[in-house]
Structures are given as structure tokens and as C-alpha cells.
Write a sequence for this structure.
């Protein structure tokens, strides 16, 4: 299973590396969002600084939506998903591989966005002991839930519109918990943050488990 | 004959629901006393809490029926899941509206972002997503399977929403009724129980009708599919007259050849 996962993740990451869609489109889109937030909230440093954590995770969430859509769009051409179904790879392995590939892309994006909020919003990153596990667990949860809904929507004709409707409410707890933990880390008061980190871990574990159980079925349907 | 989804049983149930709602209004608005703390606003509670609890029950039925569908793969489970989600959505709207009105009077705002309310809003959006999936233009078997998985994924939010006031310290009232040191006055408790029964019956009544309608919709879908197939088959025979697809052409003459 883990060998299958590594194969799928390697394939997806190589595809992204060669097509450069992530670098050329998704990352600039995320940075653009940071700039637009600044316009919307008036370039008032105090407001931006207070809202940094929330804006950061909203930017991650919307970029994740693009990354997830992309991860399944690359397989909708030329019957690649049929090939994947027929390949004899373990569905749980395919799921883990896709989750890993999406998570790695998102982590790179998060580092980039962190640079963005430091430069644009004047945030001062601190509390790395909390910041790093928060990002890791939130990303795992995003990728796992995203993969379940991504493959579900992939086979549908209305996939572009149904995916955000289904996925965003599911991801709302991640947004809430990640924002709180992130804020605690940035503010230096990590006490409250650990509890939110716990929620993120539970969410990630729940959706990884759900994906293990349902991905095979959903892949057959897509 | 007027086509109808009612039967003697549902007619009795419908009358009972109508009468029950009238009696509930009488008790809730006139006979039950005003609360010592909440005063007259407590009357909203006789609609708010029963609709909320029945809505949660409806979503649990959807989750259960989704599991049932994934195990048994029969149309029955699929339709139960869909009908229950629709009824739950309607009842949840009633909960949200009554809660918002109550909140305006008591808290001074229609809406506040505490855990209970936020989760309820999320649950509502999730259910709208589920209902959107059920309307996707797919082959029925595929639609049922996809809906069942989406329905199953309603479970975590429904559970979290139901226990929100127990798990988090929120502005929203905690569960007044099930706690042992209930401070409910006898008549108030009766009115509340009546509300539960009436809204439970309302849910059951509408469920039966909705189930029958969805079942018939599936039959109509089958018939139009049969008609379309019959038409294509006739097209293949050049001397046969062409007919437009109608719902009456369920038989497939010469289809065996």
C-alpha cells in the first residue's frame, strides 16, 4: 500500500513539477489574494495585523481548492482514471498518494504565503513549536477531505461548481482551528493554541480514516 | 381520478398533525405560563427546540439510510435518505428562523458566531450540498451511490452540532430538558412534549408523502427511459411509423428480436 502511495504521489508531483501550473498559476493566485485582502480591508496596518491568521488560512483554503481540482483534472483526460482503476493499485494507496502529493504542494504554498504575510501584513512569525505542527496537521486534513470530495466530484459534469459547495463547509472547522492556533502562535500565547491543534489532528485523522474506507468506492464511481 | 400520494393512513396522520399544531399553538401561546427569567420569549422554545431535535433526528436517519444503501443497495434506502434530508432541511430552517427571532429579543442580535450557531449554519450548508448532489444529472445508480457517500459524511457535523453546547461553553442555552435538575414547570414540560410529538408526526407525515413522490419520480424516469428505448428500436426499423417519446410506451414490442 505504501509503495503504491509513493508511486501515485511521485507521479502527481512529477506532473506538477513539469507542467508548472502550481508555480505559474496557483502560487501567484494565492499571493494575489493576500493583496486583494489588503485592498478590501484598507491598507490599515492594525486591521491587517489583527486579521492576518484568518486571511492567511482563507488564502490557503481557496488555493487548496484549486490544487485539489487540478489534482483530479489531470486524470480526467485520456481515460487516465480508468487506467488508475485498472492498474491494480490498492485504492487506499492511491488515496494516500494523492493526499501526500496535494499536502506537499500545499505546504510549499504555505511557506510562500507565510513570507507573503510577513512582507505585506507585517506579521512577525514566532511560536514555531506550535506553528509547524499546526500547518502540518491542517494541511493533512485539507488534503484528505479534499481528496475524498475531489474524486467524488471528478466524474461529474458540474465538478467545478459542486466541489466548492461540498468541500468548503466541511473544511470550515479546519479554517477555524487553524486560524486560532496560528493566531496563538503569532501572538506568542501558545496555551490556547494546543487545544485547537488537537482539533486539527482529530479532523485529519477522521478524514484520512474516511478516505481509507470510501476512496475505492468513489474511484469506481468517478 | 385525481392522482394523489395520500392513503387513509396518511389522511388520518395529516388531520392529527393539523389538530396537533392547533393544540400546540393554544398551549404554547395561551395556556402555558411565561418563564420567570425569559418571560414571554420562552414561547419560541416550543417551536425552536422540537424542530431542532427532529431536524437532527432527520439527519441521523439520512446518515443511517446512506449506510443502509451502501450495504443493501436498494432504492428504498436511497429514497429514505433523500426524503429525510429534505424534511430535515425544512425543519432546520424553522429552527434557524425561530432562533434568530428569539436571539433578537434576548441577545439583541439575530445571529451570533458561537459554536452551536456556527455548526448549525455549517450543517445547513452541508445539507444543501447533499441535496444539490441528489439533483445531479446522473444515471440513478451512480447518483444514489455518490449521494450515499455524501450523506454519510454529514455524520460528524450533525453529531458535533447536537453536542455543541455540551462540548463547548457557548452563548447558546445548554440542553435544559434532558438534564436531571430540570427546572421546567409541569405545564411547560407538557407543552414541550406536545411540541416534540406534533413535530415528530409532522416529520413522519411529510416523509411518507415525500417518499411516495420520489418513488413515483423514479417510476416516471423508468417509463421515459423505456419509451426512449422503444422509440430508438422503432427508428431502427425503417417501415415502422415514428412516434414521439411518451410516457405510455412502456412496452417494447419486438425488442426481443
Amino acid at each position: 500500500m505504501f509503495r503504491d502511495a509513493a508511486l501515485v504521489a511521485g507521479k502527481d508531483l512529477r506532473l506538477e513539477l513539469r507542467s508548472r501550473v502550481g508555480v505559474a498559476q496557483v502560487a501567484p493566485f494565492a499571493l494575489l489574494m493576500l493583496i486583494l485582502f489588503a485592498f478590501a480591508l484598507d491598507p490599515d496596518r492594525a486591521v491587517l495585523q489583527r486579521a492576518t491568521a484568518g486571511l492567511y488560512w482563507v488564502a490557503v483554503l481557496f488555493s487548496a481548492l484549486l490544487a485539489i481540482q487540478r489534482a483530479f483534472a489531470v486524470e480526467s483526460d485520456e481515460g487516465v482514471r480508468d487506467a488508475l482503476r485498472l492498474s491494480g493499485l490498492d485504492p487506499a494507496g492511491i488515496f494516500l498518494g494523492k493526499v501526500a502529493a496535494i499536502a506537499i504542494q500545499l505546504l510549499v504554498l504555505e511557506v510562500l504565503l507565510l513570507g507573503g504575510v510577513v512582507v505585506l501584513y507585517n506579521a512577525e512569525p514566532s511560536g514555531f513549536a506550535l506553528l509547524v505542527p499546526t500547518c502540518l496537521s491542517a494541511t493533512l486534513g485539507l488534503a484528505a477531505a479534499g481528496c475524498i470530495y475531489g474524486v467524488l466530484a471528478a466524474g461529474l459534469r458540474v465538478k467545478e461548481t459542486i466541489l466548492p459547495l461540498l468541500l468548503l463547509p466541511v473544511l470550515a472547522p479546519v479554517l477555524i482551528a487553524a486560524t486560532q492556533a496560528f493566531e496563538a502562535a503569532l501572538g506568542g500565547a501558545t496555551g490556547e493554541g494546543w487545544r485547537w491543534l488537537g482539533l486539527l489532528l482529530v479532523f485529519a485523522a477522521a478524514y484520512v480514516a474516511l478516505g481509507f474506507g470510501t476512496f475505492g468506492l468513489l474511484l469506481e464511481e468517478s | 381520478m385525481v392522482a394523489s400520494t395520500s392513503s387513509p393512513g396518511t389522511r388520518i396522520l395529516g388531520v392529527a398533525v393539523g389538530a396537533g399544531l392547533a393544540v400546540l399553538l393554544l398551549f404554547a401561546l395561551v395556556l402555558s405560563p411565561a418563564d420567570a427569567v425569559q418571560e414571554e420569549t420562552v414561547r419560541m422554545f416550543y417551536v425552536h427546540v422540537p424542530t431542532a431535535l427532529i431536524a437532527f433526528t432527520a439527519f441521523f436517519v439520512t446518515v443511517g439510510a446512506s449506510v443502509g444503501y451502501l450495504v443493501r443497495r436498494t432504492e428504498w434506502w436511497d429514497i429514505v435518505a433523500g426524503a429525510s434530508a429534505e424534511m430535515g432541511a425544512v425543519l432546520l430552517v424553522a429552527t434557524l428562523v425561530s432562533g434568530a427571532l428569539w436571539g433578537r429579543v434576548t441577545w439583541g442580535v439575530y445571529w451570533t458566531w458561537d459554536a452551536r450557531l456556527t455548526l448549525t449554519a455549517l450543517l445547513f450548508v452541508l445539507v444543501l450540498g447533499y441535496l444539490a448532489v441528489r439533483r445531479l444529472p446522473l444515471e440513478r445508480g451512480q447518483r444514489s451511490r455518490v449521494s450515499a457517500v455524501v450523506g454519510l459524511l454529514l455524520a460528524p457535523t450533525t453529531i458535533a452540532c447536537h453536542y455543541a453546547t455540551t462540548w463547548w461553553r457557548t452563548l447558546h442555552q445548554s440542553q435544559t430538558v434532558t438534564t436531571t435538575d430540570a427546572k421546567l414547570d409541569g405545564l411547560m414540560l407538557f407543552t414541550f412534549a406536545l411540541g416534540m410529538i406534533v413535530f415528530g408526526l409532522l416529520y413522519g407525515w411529510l416523509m411518507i408523502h415525500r417518499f411516495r413522490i420520489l418513488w413515483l419520480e423514479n417510476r416516471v424516469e423508468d417509463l421515459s427511459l423505456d419509451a426512449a428505448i422503444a422509440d430508438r428500436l422503432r427508428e431502427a426499423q425503417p417501415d415502422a411509423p415514428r412516434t414521439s417519446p411518451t410516457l405510455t410506451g412502456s412496452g417494447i414490442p419486438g425488442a426481443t428480436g
Summary: Residues 186-236 of chain B form the longest helix (51 residues). The two ends of chain B are 38 Å apart (CA to CA). DSSP finds eight helices and no strands in chain B.
